[in-house]
Amino acid sequence: MQSIRSIFLATAAIVIAGATLVFAASIGLALAGIASVVMLGSWISAKLQPTPVRARVYARTGKPGQREPRVWNDGRGTIIDL
Q1: Would the pTM count as exceeding 0.90?
Q2: Which residues contact 4 (CB under 8 A, 6 or more apart)?
């Protein structure tokens, strides 16, 4: 009688451990799937945004040592570096 109870408890423990393993694996796969969908959406969103356009402005005077001002558009507005 004692050995039958031990076999039953061992079998129940193995079944519970297996069910826990399957549940944890399914949760892990679900999280990996959600993360991959979010990464794919972020990648597509980045591809659809326009790229910044670089503009050039040259100095009007030919003085030595005077560097040309830099002008560019970063997508939020025009930036002029004098």
Answers
A1: no
A2: none
